[in-house]
Amino acid sequence: MKGAVFVTLKTMIEESHGPTAWAALVDKVAPECEGVYDANENYPDADAIAYIGAVAELLNSSASAVTEIFGRYLFDALNSMSPQYAAASPTLFGFLQSIEPLIHREIRNSNKSSSLPVIVVKVTDEQHLLMRYNSPRKLCFLAEGLIRGAAKHYGETVELSHDKCLHRGDICCELNVIKLAT
Ligand code: HEM
């Protein structure tokens, strides 16, 4: 997993709970890099999962809820680092359709070892979009948070349902995004 993801998690925790809380999480996860992350390097996926578990414990919450909240925060961080992607799509649905063929494709092309999911998006009508998600990391709740973060960025109100899920033994996750009238 890209260092940028760890750096963003660190910023989120330090902003909300202070530097001591982040230091305690690093102690708990005990990563080989000792908690020093370079945004452009790759770090073990297992460390990201371990941090999520440790944050969930700290907040007395579930791993899925923590991952989803982090996804919202991560959207803003990614969008600040690479604003050209959202700028290229005037609507949320257009943006979500560009993830695989544009955004993740460019990342994959520039770094063959990137840990990216397979995302297939289908727009069924003006209000309904179906996203199929698959990844050995099973970070579908991160995808949920990223979608909600993107919806906020576009000023669009959406409802999300997570009908099929890798965590429940389905072969992929299905996220239905319903655009509500504002
Ligand atoms: C709503 C929009 C997006 C969704 C649903 C999405 C989904 C995801 C998910 C779920 C992951 C975690 C890896 C996995 O599940 O296997 C991921 C990784 C990543 N995504 Fe996206 N993404 C979105 C937008 C973006 C944008 C705008 C960027 C901008 C650069 C981006 C760049 C990345 C990067 C750098 C990683 C980490 C790659 C690595 O660790 O090697 N994504 N994405």
From TrEMBL:
Pfam families: HNOB (PF07700)
Gene3D superfamilies assigned: H-NOX domain (3.90.1520.10)
Superkingdom, natural source: Bacteria
GO molecular function, one term: heme binding
Regions crossing the membrane: none
Domain Heme NO-binding: 2-162
Name of the protein in its database record: Heme NO-binding domain-containing protein
